[in-house]
Amino acid sequence: MIPLLKNEWIKLWNKKQTWIFLGAIVILMLGLTIIYSTIIVNEDSTASGDDGWTVTLETEIAEQEEILENETEEEWIQEDAERRIEENEEMLEAGINPNEMNNAIFMNDTALGIASFVTLFSVIVASSIVSSEIDNGTMKHLLIRPFERWQVLLAKFITVVGFSIMMILVLLLSNLLMGTIAFGSGSFSTPIVEHSFYGDVLYTTVSDIFPAKVGLYFLNMMMFVIISFSLSILFKSQTLAVGIGIFILFFTSMAQGFSMLLADTAWYKFIFIAHLELPSYAVVDEFLPGVGIGFSLAILAVYAIAFLGTSGVYFQKKDLM
Asked: 3-state DSSP call for residue 135?
C-alpha cells in the first residue's frame, strides 16, 4: 500500500497543474490582501475613525433612537433602527471595535472566501485522478501489479485528500503572513462580531469561531471531493468527468439559493445539497427548520458511503484490461 501511495504522490507533483493550483492560491491571497489594505480598510477608517470607535457607535445609537422617536417613519425603517441599536450596544458591551484590523481578524474575514478556490481545485484533481489514467490507458499498468483494485482506489483517494489539506495549509500560512505584513500582528482572542447569511449575529473571538469555520469547511469540501472522485471512476473521459464535477460544484452553490423556498418541505432535508453549508453552523444552530449539525453530518455521511460504495463496486467489476 505504501508503494502505491508514494507512486500516486510522485505522479501528482510531476504535473504542472499541481504547482499552478498552489501558485494561484498564493496569488489570489495576495490580491485580496491588497484590496483590503488599499480600499476596504481605508474607507472604513476614513468613515468611522479608528481612535474614536466608541464615540462613533454611541453617535449612531443616538441617530437611530431619533428615527425610532419619529413615528412617521415606515415600519421597516424603525425595525432596522432597533436592530442597529441592539448590535451597537452589544459591541460596546463586548468591547468590539468594528474598525479594528489585524492578521487574526483578516484571516477570519477572508480565508474561507479564497477557500472556495481550494474546493474548485480539489474537485478538478479528484475528477481526473482515475479517469485520466483510464483515458490514456495507464490504469492497466497499475492493475497488473500485486495490489487489489480497492487498494489502488484508496491510494488515489488518500492522495487527493492529502493534496486538499496541503492547499488549505498553504492558504492559511499565506493568509497569516500577508495579513501580518499588511495589518500587523494581533491576538487571536480579539473580540469580533459574526453575521450569518440568515441574519444571525454572534459576538465571539477569532480563536473561538475560526477553528470551527475551518473544520466545518473541510468536511463540506470533502463531500465535493467524494462526489468528484466517484465521477472519476464512472467516466472514462477525463474531460467529461472534470466538466461534470465542476458543474455539480457550481450547480450545488446555485441550488442552495432555493433552500429558503424548499426548507419547509418534508423531503428537502434528506437531500445532500441542502446540507452543504456546514460552515454556517459555526454561527447558527440550524439553517433548516429543526435540522442541526448532527443531522446534517449524518445525511452527508450516508451519501458519502453511497457514492464511494457504488463507484467502488463498479470499479471492481469494470473491464479495464
From this structure: helix
